[in-house]
Amino acid sequence: MVRSSFLWVLLVVLGLNSCNSDHDIPIVKNSQILGEFLKMKEPHLLNLLQNSAAGRPLYLCLTVQEGAEKLPLARKEIFVYQADVSGEYQSEIPGKENTAKIRGTGITDLDGRVLVRTLLPGDFGSIDLNRHIQVQIDGAYPKLHRIYFRQFANCEIQNQSRKETETHIVDLERDEASNLVAFLKLEVNLSTKPENNFSSTQ
């Protein structure tokens, strides 16, 4: 009986340790929506791959919405920056992450959408499972958003996302070519802090 219980616990632990495998990054569910994003051109397409080293390609499909009515926030400037695959920002100005080597600006389309083509960043610093991308939306609250990936987010970050409107968790999916895909709807308020916090939905 004791041996059976030990084996069961061991299997559970092994299962938890394998959470980063492709078996738990499913094929993208809505290929039609992904196809619509992939048709986007500059300035609604923000291509950061030209500034990146080799790594796992990622399509980050963002939709920015305003307020409780969730109106599309069109023609809004979106600034994106992140660490590279080794977790380094390689900032032009030391200590300022928004001067990272991998950074760029896009503009939302009439439906509030922007496609970010980039690479999955590495873990930053000495903390495991904290891979993320940072997004600034000019003239909106919250201005700065941190986007983490569920398959690469530790428990502390996942708990933090439930308390902070600027911290988001997205589920990674993959297309048939094994490119990573993530969808996120960002709900923001223009100019001033709202009385009630808005959250993100995938």
3D structure, described in words:
This protein is α+β, with helices and mostly antiparallel strands and 202 residues long. It contains 3 helices and 12 strands, in the order ααβββββββββαβββ. The strands form 2 sheets. Strands 1, 2, 3, 6, 8, 11 and 12 form a 7-stranded mixed sheet that branches. The chain has a 5-stranded mixed sheet with strand order 5-4-7-9-10. The longest helix has 16 residues. The C terminus is likely disordered.
How is this fold's topology laid out?
Blueprint (H helix, E strand, L loop, with lengths): L1 H16 L13 H8 L6 E3 L9 E10 L4 E2 L4 E6 L19 E6 L5 E7 L10 E8 L2 E2 L2 E10 L1 H7 L5 E4 L2 E2 L5 E11 L12
Parallel strand pairs: 1-6, 2-12, 9-10
Antiparallel strand pairs: 2-3, 2-6, 4-5, 4-7, 7-9, 8-12, 11-12
Helix content: 10-25%
- Helix/strand/pairing class, anyone? alpha+beta
Report the average pLDDT across residues. Answer: 84
Rg estimate, integer Å: 18 Å
Number of helices: 3
End-to-end gap: 44 Å
Give the topology string: H per helix, E per strand. Answer: HHEEEEEEEEEHEEE
Shape: globular
Biggest sheet record: 7 strands, mixed
Kindly estimate the percentage of residues that lie in beta strands according to DSSP. Answer: 35-45%
Number of DSSP-assigned strands: 12
Unreliable sequence segments: 6-23, 195-201
